[in-house]
Design brief:
There is one protein chain. The chain has 156 residues and is mainly alpha-helical. The chain folds into two domains: 40 residues, no CATH class; 99 residues, TTHA0068-like (Hyaluronidase domain-like), CATH 1.10.3450. The longest helix has 22 residues.
């Protein structure tokens, strides 16, 4: 990509690239001239606040938005915390794939996220990660079996 193209990219306050394309409610990019239903929110810098925002979105079944909040924390997390943030992000992405009809992607991300969360026991940062990992695995099994999936809530 040429330097002049990089300078024209949409950036947030921290200089990170943003997608200027509108998105639908499941986070899928739409053509630039269409009106999107997903509004990009200004996310806090604090990891605890990001966790709260993500939990609120997750429990409201806005899995793409939960992933956006948690991914922000994941990228700046110190080493020992990275798998926690990546794990909950991957679970949210798994449910996003399920909503989009991508069963294979859903199963893969739900299992991958659950595996990362296993290292954090039953509770971490006030989140019932053991229950979330178990719910992610149960959802993956239900998807593979063609059974209805129970969407979990995160208890704090």
């Amino acid at each position: 990509m040429a330097d002049r193209d990089r300078a024209d990219r949409d950036r947030d306050a921290r200089g990170r690239a943003r997608s200027a394309r509108p998105r639908d409610e499941l986070g899928r990019p739409l053509p630039r001239d269409e009106q999107g239903s997903l509004v990009e929110e200004q996310l806090p810098d604090d990891p605890e606040a990001l966790l709260d925002v993500g939990v609120e979105h997750f429990n409201a079944e806005r899995f793409f938005q939960a992933h956006e909040a948690w991914e922000t924390a994941w990228h700046s997390a110190p080493g020992p915390e990275r798998d926690f943030w990546q794990g909950i992000t991957q679970v949210a992405v798994g449910f996003t794939h399920l909503r989009r009809g991508n069963r294979t992607g859903a199963v893969t991300l739900l299992r991958r996220g659950a595996k990362r969360l296993d290292a954090y026991g039953e509770r971490h940062r006030g989140i019932t990660v053991g229950a979330l990992a178990g719910a992610a695995r149960a959802a993956a099994e239900a998807i593979e079996a063609g059974s209805p999936v129970t969407l979990p809530k995160i208890a704090r």
